[in-house]
Amino acid sequence: MSMKNGKILRVNLTTKDITTENIDSGAARSFLGSKGLAAYYLFKELRRGVDPLSPENKLVFMTGPLTGTKAPSSCRFVVCTKSPLTGAWVDSSCGGFWGPELRFAGFDGIIVEGRAESPVYIHISDGEASIRDAGFLWGMGTIDTISYLRERHKSDRTVRVATIGPAGEKQARLAAVIADMRAAGRGGTGAVMGSKKLKAISVVGHGKVPIADPQKFNSLAKEAHKENKEDSARMAAMGTASIVKLVNSTGGWPTRNFSESQWDEAAEELAGETFQKTLWGGGKYVKPCYNCPIRCAHLAVIREGKYAGISDEGPEYETISLFGPNCGIKSREVITVADRMCDNYGIDTISLGNTIGFVMECVERGLVSLEEIDGVDLRFGNEEAFLKAVNMAGNVYGNLGRLLANGVKRAAEKIGKGSEKFAMHVKGLEIPAYVPRAGHGHALAYAVADRGACHLRPWLYGAEHFFGKLNPSTTEDKPEAVKLGQQNRALIHSSGLCQFAVSEDMLYESLLQMINAATGFNYTVDEFRLVGERINNLTRSFNCREGFTSKDDTLPYRSTNEPLPTGPQKGQVIRLSEMLPEYYRVCGWSEDGVPTKEKLEELRLDFVIEDLY
Amino acid sequence: MSMKNGKILRVNLTTKDITTENIDSGAARSFLGSKGLAAYYLFKELRRGVDPLSPENKLVFMTGPLTGTKAPSSCRFVVCTKSPLTGAWVDSSCGGFWGPELRFAGFDGIIVEGRAESPVYIHISDGEASIRDAGFLWGMGTIDTISYLRERHKSDRTVRVATIGPAGEKQARLAAVIADMRAAGRGGTGAVMGSKKLKAISVVGHGKVPIADPQKFNSLAKEAHKENKEDSARMAAMGTASIVKLVNSTGGWPTRNFSESQWDEAAEELAGETFQKTLWGGGKYVKPCYNCPIRCAHLAVIREGKYAGISDEGPEYETISLFGPNCGIKSREVITVADRMCDNYGIDTISLGNTIGFVMECVERGLVSLEEIDGVDLRFGNEEAFLKAVNMAGNVYGNLGRLLANGVKRAAEKIGKGSEKFAMHVKGLEIPAYVPRAGHGHALAYAVADRGACHLRPWLYGAEHFFGKLNPSTTEDKPEAVKLGQQNRALIHSSGLCQFAVSEDMLYESLLQMINAATGFNYTVDEFRLVGERINNLTRSFNCREGFTSKDDTLPYRSTNEPLPTGPQKGQVIRLSEMLPEYYRVCGWSEDGVPTKEKLEELRLDFVIEDLY
Known about the structure:
2 copies of one chain form a homodimer.
Chain A: E1 7-12, E2 18-22, H1 25-31, H2 34-45, E3 59-63, E4 77-82, E5 89-94, H3 98-104, E6 109-113, E7 120-125, E8 128-133, H4 142-152, E9 160-163, H5 166-169, E10 177-179, E11 182-184, H6 189-195, E12 198-204, H7 214-231, H8 233-238, H9 244-249, H10 264-270, H11 272-277, E13 299-301, E14 311-313, H12 317-323, H13 332-345, H14 349-364, H15 383-394, H16 398-405, H17 408-415, E15 425-426, E16 429-430, H18 440-448, H19 461-465, H20 478-495, H21 504-519, H22 525-545, H23 557-561, H24 576-587, H25 597-602, H26 606-612
Parallel strand pairs in A: 1-6, 7-12
Antiparallel strand pairs in A: 1-2, 3-4, 3-6, 4-5, 7-8, 9-10, 9-12, 10-11, 13-14, 15-16
Helix pairs in contact in A: 1-2, 2-20, 2-22, 7-21, 12-14, 13-15, 14-17, 15-16, 18-20, 20-22, 20-24
């Protein structure tokens, strides 16, 4: 098999067929890579209404044109599918080393189809792929699975492994894919992998990523490295946790199931500064992803007390906040232990922390009896109960484990009694660690993001609260900012770079230049912008085909009806209905939120028109 | 630095001096290697009465002449020191890959001296060694430490790591050294490593082990491989757990702190056959040590229930029995979870299971109040309390953790109230998983073994109960059998081979031939036998110098005074005092159990005479 890139590996686990195909060069130019290209394949190949956990759903692992190159933080790949959590589109991005290694092995992506009869894993080595028995690996946590497959396929390079843990095997709708201890966390991609009885994909390769204009590319990459290194001292020191205090002081820190937005005492305990001084051992021990000058990933070691001897890669801002204040917890150790458990079980910490916070509120309000949840006294701040809940969710054990492992929307449906009013999700995806009521911009982004409540498409909390670019209290300018931000994020998530390495400023300058040098596409700025808009319209169309309309672009009742009790935005509710029509208008979508024929034609998404109209 | 072998690396952590020295060829011939050679160095270099946890104690890692060669199961190294658990000699043997790698890196052994100011690890790569900062690794469990150092020193070979966990760092006297998830478990070598602030030794090497007569050696090794493979189907299928039912049916299975010796129901649940069908996934997934045709090491995966997602290398017969019936536990999952925890914390499962069983008996008898042990209801069969106890011991947390982590002798001293009568140890080392009262031979071996109660110097349970070679009910022939067995075991433990690869039959035939071909020593059978006796007299003399005499060759009160209530040997107590004088006589030792001048002269142990007389 040739080592030339631009190839997709297609593995059908039902028929055991393994084929390789070239990526259509037109498609590559139209959809760039990673998220964009995966959306292209999945829109074309999935039929409307497919059951996400059936063999007919497909699971796509895809890299971008910069993955595995000399560009800074060129580590990313995405896992895409129809989400079993939301029924909508999901792309879940992941760092580490697996994505680059896949390209070194000669493939830009993998499309997994069908369902194996019994557990298998896929091993890929320099252009060759095989389906292998994973009977024994089934049931193993991710840590041992990775270590086991590394040993089994030992070579002169570290074998990179993307795997599910027990949560994915049991098709928990919050299950993640874990690649070398980084997570493609959101939207239940791990459950789809589990439904296909695919335990892991191990990869090793010795090839190089082809670059159209190597000389130019290398010089651009070098410059970008330098800039990133200069900008990222804070990230290197404290990772994403560096913003804990800032989010708390600006009144957006999810506390007790998003009912409040500040908790000063916990913010001190859980600040990046405090983690750095304590569990992160001064912050000098990092485990950076592939080729990353930012180095945000810290290693935590618990040296004293009850949990001594446990270490963890992380936790990140999101995990700290959802496991911390959102569950009434302020112990770094407890959060670290829980993070480690979730990595090993393969379950999304954001969604799980959100769901636990919700059940805690239900328990406190008397909507759930302890008998219904196996006697675990799951109240805000009960550390032991919290850890028990994480454990039970991770291995989908007992009533409580099953309740939590399938997310907050289903938990609210099961509990009933009006609890859906404070079930903090959009389209079924749990809201991450910025309180919606703290700002209209990021709240609108939650409401309309393709995969459900996502803080990264775009991340407007900074613009609203840190940089003074947007006023969090008004609806003004938010529709435009969200639309533009979505396009930009679609480009970043399709490039193969980490979002932390691409500021909005450099998107149409150095990123575009690097992409042109790498691909030879020679996009103009306008063309490039259009790629972003195209991808965003494609995933929106995917959702529309599945029946999602404006009625699903919502926020929880709590966000739109209960005045925020604390913080600078005290008293605020989100006036979503004022923003939505304008948002649809700037997107070129109908009042129902469906991309118009004209917009789709403009974006040359003809194959979408056929399906939608 | 040359890659020629026969070199010792000496690392002084106080002065940071790293030196290399040749092994004296006379010493190598006299003491063979591994245990024997370590005893030679430690006897000569340690002063009488040295505090085991002081910088003046030394810690010796030593391989044997066959370690890392083509001989079957040539994986072993020993960790030797003055034991902080017993105050006596200890050699603790370990399989895996670390020992062979040390030889590939150009060293036969390492002598660690002094104490670092702050935590360090030693990295060895092809003849070069350096002392490095381990500030961050301090506090980490062994699993993450190994993974972290492998990543940090990534090369074309898997870096092999011997490390301590939190138990060793906190100088728990039951702390083990863990090398790639195999344990040098017994006697607290991990505590000595911790006292030196030495977290780990990582090794990688590309050299070959020198062989005097390669052609002859290779042909002998090939033959030995074949024989081992034929003999070991049962071991490959069920590991050491294959004997669970046999030991139970012959009435030697430690049950409820050795108070009973049979538990049929648990024997069914915990038999190798049952593990094989369940957690071991049919038994086909093994993780064999270096170059091993026997492949006794199984991988357990818990797939269902409360503990789903946890996997473990093991557990072995000893762990199964001490954590199982000895603590009133019959759950494979609970034992497996506990085994995994102990590996990660770096604590000896044999000693810990014995000590927990003891405290359970104390609780049941009302000698310990729950307040004294942090409210943990540690009674026979309480699975949750048992796991909590293992966890607390492993990270030396709370009163209970501290009580357990320092072994049964100290626990009995603390609890008092006559509890020492059922504290099951000899010289402070906890008795392993054969009830002493079941047979006079293995009971005598417990009483007189150099490191305290050891089931392997020699293993007479088989001769007494499986093979009909010795009558377990009489004192006859036992002193001779123990003496001969000790010599033989000293040879095996000094050879670098695993004891499972060397039957007593082949000791003076194929093992001797392989050693001669490898070393060029050309031992006669008599000379070789003398080496075994010499080593055994040397470690005995080490103990005598520390003040150990016949008064320490004891068995617990329970073994010599309370008739065994169950099994084929029902009613039996061990008549130790009838056997000891004869044992000393056949050894050529005084009535006090001290090697006579004449014996020492005969064995050419002149440097010992100077110290003892």
